[in-house]
Amino acid sequence: MSIDFSPLEVWFVTGSQHLYGPETLKQVDADSQQIVDGLNASGNLPVKVVFKPVLKTTEEVIKLLAEADTTSNCIGVVTWMHTFSPAKMWVRALSALKAPMCHLHTQFNRDIPWSSIDMDFMNLNQSAHGGREFGFICSRLRKRRKVVVGHWEDARVHGQLATWQRAAAAWHDSQNLKVARFGDNMRFVAVTEGDKVEAELKFGYSVNGYGLGDLVAVMNDVTDKEVDQLCKTYADEYELASGLETGGAKNDSLKTAAKIELAIRRFLEDGGFGAYTDTFENLTGLDQLPGIASQRLMADGYGFGAEGDWKHAALVRSMKVMAHGLSGGTSFMEDYTYHFDPNSPGVLGSHMLEICPSIANGKVKCEVHPLGIGGKADPVRLVFDAKAGPALNATVVDMGNRFRFVVNTVTSVTPPHDLPKLPVARALWEPHPDLPTAAAAWIHAGGAHHTGFSLDLTPEHLEDFADMAGIEFLLIDQDTKLRSFKQELLWNDAAYAH
Ligand code: MN
Predict the structure, then answer these.
(1) Read out DSSP for 430-469?
(2) How much distance in Å is there from the Cα of 324 to the middle of ligand 1?
(3) Which residues surround ligand 1, an ion (CB under 5 A)?
(4) pTM higher than 0.70, yes or no?
(5) Mean per-residue pLDDT pooled into runs of 10, the chain (498 residues)
(6) How many whole angstroms from 90 Cα to the centroid of ligand 1?
(7) Residue 444 Cα to ligand 1 middle (Å)
């Protein structure tokens, strides 16, 4: 399922009323059109903004927002009150609206025209109080939405709109996302379990299981020619470890890995899946745990979760959509082991194999090593260090009565030493505000050991997405104090107790 923002639209909807007369409303339309043109011309927004004529009545609002919900490439609605728009005319339409909404609290002019301002100007430019009337009705309806405040030409405003657009694109994708599971969860593991019916209700995506035999049947149709071509791609794109090359002693391992990748890719393409899980405990018919296959499929935008972790497979897919076109990289991740040196405390993140090369810094090596668990043949994997820079880890867990998002901002750092014997891709990071606070907060929140790790996204992307899903969102960052965080958890239990 490739990711493409080009057909997507965000509708720009301006509220007003008939009170001001046709001349003023004509001006409102012209100003809205100019704002839309300005936003599109800024080059700062990844999704096209589409102008819609000013809304003056309850009936017009209902009709337009219903259209937004039924137009398949409309991923969200930006609302703006140029003038005062009595908000009872928005009640029914907003109650029914399913599409994500962003209230842009801006005004056409940036500055007050001190020497020329008169009552005509005041009648036309009423965003400051028109936006408050609109805000009241949204809050009265308990509508979760983004509110962006500032002048429409301000790059900071563009940044917030772009973030919301990326979250809305991921939300749009999530409504039709299909997650395939090869095998079940890793046996006895708690956090990878969850309510798949509730997940479809809250996130839109569907999760269904397939027998390994279904995948093996596809694999049996893979031709030797296809395998040879993919092995050549591996040799072209990565630094092959000695023995993996054609004619080498371990070339059969590479061929097997290529065959597995071709089979999974075909299975996902044929079934229209955007994410998948596997587990080392259910590999009947596969000679290796998919390593390089999962790594390369993630790099192509597929979501992946190991050990049957469908919630993080879907989350990684959504994060991939949010980060589309950005250059930092996003991967499935696991908090693996700690560095408790007081001078440079950190977390080494990795997995048995499946880390996405989109986060790789520099060269990517292709190697084969024993796995140590699962009792299968040695799997081929890509090995690299992650890039340094601002990053985050995100998790979604099922608390029984709700889904909970937890995000921790981190600084990804270059490992201070080579790790010559570590045969897996890895990232090293310093969590915010510090390792003891971050890890304690994460553990109090019940955050999973699996995460989506991204060098492209900010907490705001995930918070916007959580608001679209209507789920709980917890942030651990530089401002986190453990005591307040624990209180937030307690209060949220009360807030979600139904
Ligand atoms: Mn794991």
Answers:
(1) EESS-HHHHHHHHHHHT--SEEEEESS--HHHHHHHHHHH
(2) 25
(3) 306-307, 334
(4) yes
(5) 95 92 92 98 98 95 98 98 92 97 97 96 92 97 97 98 98 98 97 98 98 97 98 97 96 97 98 97 94 98 98 98 98 98 96 97 95 88 98 98 98 95 97 98 98 98 98 98 98 91
(6) 47
(7) 20
